[in-house]
TrEMBL record:
Domain MIP18 family-like: 50-119
Name of the protein in question: MIP18 family-like domain-containing protein
Source domain of life: Bacteria
Entries under InterPro entries matching the protein: Fe-S_Maturation_MIP18, FSCA_dom_sf, MIP18-like
Pfam families found in the cross-reference section: FeS_assembly_P
Length: 151
């Protein structure tokens, strides 16, 4: 069993930052992705999944003060044999103030990963983002009940 601890820095719109230590456990299994199950990925992503998650957890939606990964904004990641990566994502609403900054930050951050050549982002509005898409870590961070459904 491989145990991994991760520090997540939380920001809010006033610029204050808080940190929480997240303790994750998972079985080390060949071919098993560490990516959230809700994110559609191809086989090639497994080679980079920890690095991708780490990068995405440092890109924040400024109004909600949580990263795009734990918010559930990332719907899919596809990496081809040449190392070209496409990230399919959404936002909480159309006209979101960060709709230009966040995709740019994703492209710049993921392009830093050795083996990823270039990154494109594709914004989609279906399925519509819902609070239920927030991860357990995100729910705890935002003070939402981590168990059960968000209504």
């Amino acid at each position: 069993m491989l145990v991994r601890d991760r520090m997540i820095v939380l920001g809010n719109r006033r610029g204050f930052q808080n940190s929480i230590l997240i303790h994750n456990s998972f079985l080390e299994t060949e071919g098993l992705s560490n990516m959230r199950e809700s994110i559609a990925v191809n086989d090639r992503v497994a080679d980079f999944d920890e690095q991708i998650v780490e990068q995405l957890e440092h890109i924040f939606e400024p109004d909600l003060g949580l990263d795009v990964y734990n918010l559930g904004f990332i719907y899919g990641i596809d990496i081809d044999e040449a190392g070209d990566c496409e990230v399919t994502m959404t936002f909480s609403e159309m006209g979101c103030a960060c709709s230009e900054d966040v995709p740019k930050a994703i492209r710049e951050s993921l392009a830093k990963i050795d083996g990823i050549r270039q990154v494109t982002t594709k914004i989609v509005w279906e399925p519509v983002w819902q609070l239920s898409m927030i991860s357990r870590v995100g729910r705890i961070t935002l003070g939402i009940n981590p168990k059960g459904r968000v209504r």
